[in-house]
Amino acid sequence: MSEAHSVCLNSVFLSAEVRAELNRMLHHYFDEIRRLFRERAIPAVVYTGGSLARQEPSVCWTEAGELRLFSDIDFVVHTSLEHQHDPWLKNLESFLKQRYPQFNSTVALVSDLNNASGFFARDLSLAQRFPVYQSFDVERLAKDAFDPVQMFNVMVHQISNTFLHPQWSGLSKGAYFRPEARYHYVKLILECLRTQFRSAEDEVIGYYSVYQKRFDPRVARIVDPETIALLTEARELFGTVEIPELDVIKILKASMAVHLGFEQPDVSSDQLRERLDELSLRSAHILPSYRYALLALMFSLDEDGEGQRLFLELFSTILRRMEQDDLVAVKADLHILTDNLWNEPLRLHNDAFRELLKTVILLRRDYVRRWRMQVTGEDKIPDLYNDLIPAKR
Predict the structure, then answer these.
(1) Mean pLDDT of the chain
(2) pLDDT for the residue numbered 361
(3) Separation of CA 68 from chain center
(4) Are 272 and 261 in contact (CB under 8 A)?
(5) What top-level branch of life does the organism fall under (predicted)?
């Protein structure tokens, strides 16, 4: 096990006092994790992924003024397939959430780190410098996970988190969402900016990197440097900074241009539709189909009349072409998305949009299963279909 490290080494706006208290809280929690694994003698290596791997967590304060970690703690447990069947390990996530409710802990079981890909693999390679628990040696992963396709996928993940959030979609709390939709809104914009840097030579790792490069033309043309600094602060110190109201759809369109293969950021609606249609024709698998259909839906929100109709027609066309082998949650309701019978214009947060999202979020359940398998290389997926009841109004 490595020596205690600073969990917020790369934080930009956390004070020295907050850093010290956060390190104290988390290293005490990590001591508990180590104790649990030692007691059960399970051969494993435990890492933290996500923002803790990048050492840039977000924090908040309770109404009583107590400091809390606002980031999730994404534990990645590397152990054999045989030991993944251990009843205690299979229920570890539920145990941690009940025993330590002050932290939102998740647990991913992985048997072969070489199967990991994308930002998940890159964050994991960073976390290998300071494992929470280690009972055997592991070969270090290569850290250059700057695959443009994976960067595109991460953006789609943040789009889903933002626009399918229960506060907007009308569904009950799901496993993918933070309590505040505004937090996902901030992360989506920062992700739009982070993924403009598509080469390892850019040395952009976390959201703190976006702040450091806020004057770079690749991001400054999308969001001005002062607002980038404000968004970085709002993510790190959530609830203490007034979040600006930005045109997130225009930001999304501007940032997606490079991911869709355009050399220039100024792309017409016709060009976007044609490119989405062209790309979606290359595969009818649920992974690309969901991504391109979701973008067509999002881009429609920036259109009026005929322009919106054309994007929604593309949205339903892509889903009609999609292979249905992987559909479970949305299988009986897919017709709601493909019949294209919306009788009133879609606007962000209006009733027509909310009703549509109730079905899109079911489709996302099916998408996430395949996506997690691709990213982690494992078929150890929790029950994704147990929170699909409508929210109480």
Answers:
(1) 88
(2) 87
(3) 21
(4) no
(5) Bacteria
With beta carbons less than 8 A apart as the criterion, state whether 352 and 346 touch. Answer: yes
Give which of 126, 31, 21 is closest to 69, Cα–Cα: 21
Task: Indicate the domain borders of the chain.
Answer: 16-134, 146-260, 268-393
Angstrom CA distances, 323 to 26, 140, 287, 329, 340, stand at 44, 37, 10, 14, 19
Output the six-digit token pair for 11. Answer: 């934080």
Rounded Cα distance between 283 and 321, Å, is 9
Q: pLDDT tens across 183-211, in order?
A: 999 999 999 999 999 888 898 999 999 99
For the ranges 79-83, 218-222, 245-249, 374-378, which has the lowest average pLDDT? Answer: 374-378
Secondary structure (3-state) at 273: helix
* pLDDT exceeds cutoff 50 at 105: yes
Query: In CATH, what class is 16-134?
Result: alpha beta
User: What letters, b where the CB count within 10 A reaches 16 and e where it falls short, cover 368-379?
Assistant: bbebbbebbbbe
Taking the C-alpha atoms of residue 171 and residue 218, their distance in angstroms, rounded to an integer, is 36
